[in-house]
Amino acid sequence: MEEESVAQVSAEKPRNILPTTKNQEPKTQGRNLAPLITQSTAEEIDNEFEVNETEASEKVEAALFIAGRYLTLQDLIMLTDINPIMLKSILYNLEKKYSTGTLRLIRRDESYKLDIAQKYHYLINKLATGNAEFTKAEQETLAIIAYKQPIKQSVVIKIRGNKSYDHIKKFRTLGLVIAKRNGHTLDLSLSEEFYEYFNVTKKEAAEQ
Known about the structure:
Blueprint: H1 2-17, H2 20-33, H3 39-67, E1 71-72, H4 73-80, H5 84-97, E2 103-108, E3 111-116, H6 121-128, H7 136-148, E4 151-152, H8 153-160, H9 164-173, E5 177-182, E6 185-190, H10 192-197, H11 202-207
Antiparallel strand pairs: 1-3, 2-3, 4-6, 5-6
């Protein structure tokens, strides 16, 4: 009986002497060494994402404006190099942004176009007909100023490119556009001569 008891104790001993803490140490250490994201790091990530999304949205907006025609999702991906998921999110937000006001984002199936609100189409006709001294590019630059006045010259340049510097200089020389200094840029707005030149009164514009 005594030998049998010793044998039982010996058989059980290997199981009893194994410390359970050793098996748990790797997991505990793993948890202690796991990287933690601090609040400041999380805010930096969020800010970086917002900046990237804002820049991407501006690229899409500029592409739609400059194109002046319907662009498919594939067209926009090729022009902006923005991934489809972010692009769809940007277009959704732009649709809400341009649901009212002067500019409208028009959707036709899976194509998009940034256009002037219907009630301002009479101005397009005024600018596009009977004024051969202005090129199409100059007309488009002048249209931006007309629709968004007062507008910063830097914004016009960003949308239309450096060529619009010459356009703006021409408009100022003709007295069609007034420029007022605003920091490092200029605020552009239409002059009285603009309304006279294109036979459009301020009252007429307000009633349209």
